[in-house]
Amino acid sequence: MRVGRPSRRARTLLMTLGVLAVLGMAFTMFAGFWTDWLWYRSVNYSSVFTTTLWTKIGLFFVFGLLMALAVGFNIWLAHRLRPPLSAMSMEQQNLDRYRMGIAPYKRWLLLGIVSLVGLIAGASASSQWRTWLMWVNGVSFGQKDPQFHLDISFYTFDLPWYRFLLGFGFAAAILSVIAAALTHYLYGGLRITSPGARATAAATGHLSVLLGVFVALKAVAYWLDRYGLAVKSSDFKATDSWTGLRYVDANAYLPAKTILFCIAVICALLFFATLWRRTWQLPVIGFGLMVLSAILIGGLYPAIVQKFQVQPNEQAKEAPYVTKNLKATREAYGIDDTQVTEYDGKSTTTDKTTLRDDVDATASIRVVDPNVVSPTFQQLQQMRNYYAFPTNLDVDRYSKDGKNAGDQDTVIGLRELNLAGIPKNNWINDHFRYTHGYGVVAAKGTEADAEGRPVFTESNLPSKGDLGTYQQRVYYGEKTTEYSIVGGPQKEIDYSDDNGEKTYSYKDKSGVNLSNPVNRAAYAVAFSEPQILYSGAIGEGSRILYNRTPKQRVEAVAPWLTIDGDAYPAVVNGKIQWIVDAYTTTNGYPYSSRTTLGDTTADSLTATNNQRAVVAQQNQVNYIRNSVKATVDAYTGQVKLYQWDTKDPVLKTWMKAFPGTVEPKTDISTDLMAHLRYPQDLFKVQRELLARYHVEDADTFLSGSEVWQVPDDPTNKSGDAVPPYYLSMKMPDQSAQAFSLTTTFTPNGRDNLSAFMSVDAEAGTGDYGKIRILKLPTNTTVNGPKQVQSQFNSEQDIAETISLLNRGDSNVEYGNLLTVPLDGGLLYVEPVYVRGGGLKYPLLRKVLVTYGGNTAFEDTLDEALNKVFGADGSTTQPPDDDGGTTKPPPTSSNPTVQQALDDAQKAFDAGQEALKKGDWEAYGRAQKDLEDALKRAEDAQAAADKSGGSSAKPSSSPSPRSSPSSSPRSSPSSSPSG
């Protein structure tokens, strides 16, 4: 049965559907491009988009065209050089069918082949846009490498581009050889089974020239390999990752590469000579000689040198090259000016009162751990379920009036939007009504209140406190990952108070305007959300906000930067600004050892909180600078990049490539400067390198006797490195406290302390970025963090108290174990939190202090310090049945005073009973009742004294000194305590 042709209507329908499908695919591609362009224009960084785009397009077309021309020309030439057809062998008869089959389509087939290789080559080349921009804009380092005496910019900017060109040339040569050989074979220029000559003279000459080009490129590769030795990584027992020349490289590989270069040049000339000699004999001999030389000279000879010259006297042979590596590595990571000081680790001061006074002068000890108290902030300051705080809070500095950075370490976090907590999830609620967080919450870092809660300096909703007036709405934050559509007819939920919900409409020009139907259609496609196209909630003034996390925005506008893992908020000039540290890096610094950012910046916090991991964490680098400080406005999303390292040649290169994107350092306001700090990820990279590179002597480095390690976090069971801690303190050579970032080292494979490291972290000061290391003697043992924690856990009195605190559904959580150098010794302080007993958040209950073998475990920092240094002035009473101290109940002849004292005794007894049961709510109420009763007693006594009464003065608080319910956790007259 004959099947009829489709009707005209059917053909028209099919054609229409086909056209619509093509248009749909085209618009999908257009939507991605158009939305990217709109976003970059909205943040005023359209030059980044256009520069990157045109660079990629240029590389794509130039190298795609070059590859297409190279392959196409050689196919055309091979076809042009085909032999005339005559009596053919069986092989040629078989090939004749293929020749006849493709004859009508030769041009189309050629066009298809060259287009395919051109597209692949162009796509590969376009990915090298960074390499191209660094090469064409590269600036001098002003330093030369110690081997070839070339400027370091040659290795960082030039050599990568030359290697790309070389790789492209190899690819073009190989593809041309393959394409030409297949064409010659198809048209009879090459024969496999036919009698007589295997190749015509024309085919021999053509392929010989191509092979000569390939060998000539190999000669260039050998020559570049000589310079590549300066940035080559290799295994070396003295270090996990060695970069640069060693003895065998300088004395075997380097001359071998030069000899192989000469042999390759000669071999290439022999291939070119076949144009006249028409024989493969000499080129084949030359090529065989090159391969043999590569095996003997490039492989066997260096192995012999290593075995018989280096290994018998390795230390002496390698020492000069180790010295070069030490110097280059320290310069590349900014650790060349590290100040290393010998430190006894044991105090020689015998006056304990002096030591106790020195503690307050030496450090403002932070007992509020920002990595523990986030649930406490959440419980006490969340206010609504659709708000949330980050898992790890941040530490900043504010003066006691809160307006400027100053002498008070502050734990700070933003009340960000949490879509998981809104009453009902739907498209309107998720993207139109619940759009932003609200307010800063801040607390003193050095003290908690009587119940172990943070002492808030900025709190409530809207937030009020020491920070004054500022724009509190948080449209851009670490937890804000969904897009929002604002400013249109749909009102937003601003915040809720006792009077109900407040509404708001976004007033800034951030985001992309959706009034244009083309924009709406593009975003509907880009976000796979058709409602964007037709929803009535979108109208005049509607704007779409996306790419809303600070790191995401900075990485987008500056794709040449590596972003620090921790963005932190600060109130600056009446606005909430996210501050983001960014780095310029390279892996082409000669002689500097490489490190993997993801591994080096990992610690016990990143193990449980991936958002703190450094961006581009798998990057291997051997040079890093904190060259840019970036800010992101939490309300407008405005991104600003500030030049921080004014000497960094890598940043200067990128500033040439993208002019106008980075603002000068002088534009940083005084208020912003006060909140800039030394970044954690850079510090972690530097401490990892300093574990080996703190020595400057090659023999010591080679022996490995001075290798340190970053200890595991003793308060975390993950087995990961202890994180560095921000702390206001002073090192022995400093006259006053400075905001610092600190860490400890232990000997390789051991737990005792080998060194303490700090860096001045407060921007704008003369010593900012100065690294100090206190190196402990190797002939004495000073406890490291793990040993201190073990000592703490093993002491019977402490263990019993911990057991008591862990009763029922209560759990103990250990805070940061802080280390402070003090009068030749080392002071350890660790806050201890308890979560449970009806509470879902941790409260500070105890503080551990250890110094010079003395340990205290008390309710407050002041009490613990007083006990350790014997400065409390009290005497210990015989213990009563409950483990407290026996003290007669206070009495007074004044009935008002006596009633208040009786109430105080009852409150104390109730607190002890609640403590035994682990009921922290009841304990907190009892403590408050105790304070109120004592205050009433004092007021009544004062009134009696004023009127001339003779009643006896009330005695001190009836709470026993050794119990967990001793004196209030903080008082105006004492120094900040836990």
How would you describe the overall organization of this protein?
The protein has 978 residues and is of the alpha+beta class. Among the domains are: 43-84 and 92-199, no CATH class; 201-332, no CATH class; 880-978, no CATH class. Helix content is 43%, strand content 18%. It contains 26 helices and 36 strands. Strands 3, 4, 27, 28, 29, 30 and 31 form a seven-stranded mixed sheet that branches. Strands 19, 20, 21, 24, 25 and 26 form a six-stranded mixed sheet that branches. A five-stranded antiparallel sheet has the order 6-7-10-11-12, with helices on one face. Strand 1 (233-236) and strand 2 (239-243) form a beta hairpin. Helix 1 (8-42) crosses helix 14 and helix 2 (46-80) packs parallel to helix 6. The radius of gyration is 37 Å and the shape is globular.
